[in-house]
Every structure is written in C-alpha cells, then in structure tokens.
Amino acid sequence: MSFTDQTIWITGASSGIGAALAREWASHGAKIILSGRDEGRLSEVADALDTETLILPFDVRDDAAMHSATKKAIAWTGNVDVFVANAGVSQRSQALKTDMQVYRDIIDIDLTAQIAATQALLPHMAERGSGKFVFISSIAGKVGVPMRTAYCAAKFGLIGYADALRGELSNKGVDVHVIAPGSVATNVSRNALSADGTKRGRSDEVIDNGIPPEEAAKTMVDAIAAGQREIIVARGMEEAMGEMRRTPDQLFDQVAAMVAAGYIEKMEADG
Predict the structure, then answer these.
(1) CA spacing 20 to 30 A to 120: which of 66, 150, 168, 238?
(2) The whole model's pTM is what?
(3) 263 catalytically annotated
(4) pLDDT > 90? residue 160
(5) What is the pLDDT of residue 157?
(6) Residue 58: domain span
C-alpha cells in the first residue's frame, strides 16, 4: 500500500524509534503529526522532515491535553490514517527492590495512557471505516525478561489490548498492528526507571549495539504496508525468543471469523 498524503500521528516522536518512524514515513510522502512532552525536540525532528508536519506536545498521562490533541490531529487534514502508540519508558530493577510507585508509573505511561489515546481516536477511525492503529510493544511484551517486571507487565498488557481490539475492528475496515522490537540503538535503557523511580542514566551494551533506528523503522513500515499484524523486529537470540512466542496468523483469523459470525452481537444480546 502507499502512504503518500496519508496522515500519520506518532507519540513518543522526539527521539529513538518514534523519530525514526517519522523520517521513514515522511520519505513515503506522508504528512506527520509529532507528539511528545518536549516541544523543542519535536521541532528539531519536524525541521528535518521534508513533508508537512504538525507538532502536538502533551504528556500522555494528561487526559485533557490528550483529548485536545486528538481533536487538533483530526482537524489538521480531516483524518488520521495511522496512529502509532509509541510513547513509553522502560525499567532496570529487580522486583524485590522496586518501589510500587515504579509499577504504577510504568503501567500508567506504557499501557493505560496508550489505551486512553487509542480510545479517544477510535470513534474517528471506526466511523470512517478505515485507518491503522500501531502499538509499539517489545520482545519484553512476549517474553518475561528479568529486571523489567513492570515493563513486561505493561507491554504484555498492550499486546492483549491490541489483539482484542483487532478482533472487534476486524469487520470495520480498521487494522491493528503490534510491533515487538528487540534491542534498538536508542536511549531507552538510559532513560529507564531504577528501583526508586529515578532515571538509570546509563545504557546497556546490547542496546548500544542494537539495530539502528532507521533500519528498524524501515522494517516496521514495510511490514505495516504488507499488512502484517504482529511484527517482530529483532536479531539473534531476541528474534528467536520473539518467534517462539509469535501468535499464529490462524489464531487472528479465527478471532476475526468469530466476530464475522456475530460473536459481539450475541454477547451484547445476552447482556
């Protein structure tokens, strides 16, 4: 499929995977909406894009700001064709040593806020009968990884929400894609929360030697264009782990067939 003149809205777009996705989609002729907390860094990303851009800075945990941004995003070109739920924060701490507030913060940012943003935009896409939701999860959303219990909980949850949503939207013309990246060379580890909720402040060797963001973004966009519903972007052991836990396409098809056969209507009729 072509993304030319389509409107792509990306959260967490000031750096890393989000910024790389913006550059990749811009190279396809898409119009880009950039969201994140840091307006200055979003402007730097926008300035480097050879396409029409709109900057909508907000904290994903601020529901009022998120709803306001949603209205502005839709009004900009009249539609949002692709929404990328990419904003998030990781973790590097043992469960035994981690404050409960760290769990609340990570799940709020990585899961609850992404669901809230999707729910706000969902009526727009459902009424149009077209669009794509793209959820950036992680290999840690398919495989439990030590030192990331909160992050895994949130990213597993995001996949569960996305898979259920895909089933509900399977007869409405709206696609749902889940992306599970492995180690990508970003600041994700440096910005990860420690046991007391402070930023870790240093990176991991595996992250520093990870997939370049531009390469990861191209793989992701190509797979979305090809209609892949679950997209694993990883190398080596991480790729093997993700593939071991990959959800078979037959299962996605089975859920869609249930919906087509009236599953939702029957459940609602039964009260």
Answers:
(1) 150
(2) 0.97
(3) no
(4) yes
(5) 98
(6) 7-269
Neighbours of 266 (CB within 10 A): 10
Tens of pLDDT, residue by residue over 170-224, are 999 999 999 999 999 999 999 999 999 999 999 999 999 999 999 999 999 999 9
Report pLDDT digits (tens) over 39-54. 999 999 999 999 999 9
Whether 219 and 233 have beta carbons less than 8 Å apart is answered as: yes
Domain count, the chain: 1
Contact indicator for 228, 128 with CB cutoff of 8 Å: no
Check 103, 151, 161, 263 and give the catalytic one: 151
pLDDT value of position 1? 80
Closest among 62, 261, 230 to 136, alpha carbons compared: 230
C-alpha distances out from residue 95 to 49, 211, 246, Å? 41, 28, 26
Kindly report, residue by residue over 115-145, the tens digit of the pLDDT.
Answer: 999 999 999 999 999 999 999 999 999 999 9
What single letter denotes the amino acid at residue 177?
H
**Any domain includes 2:** no
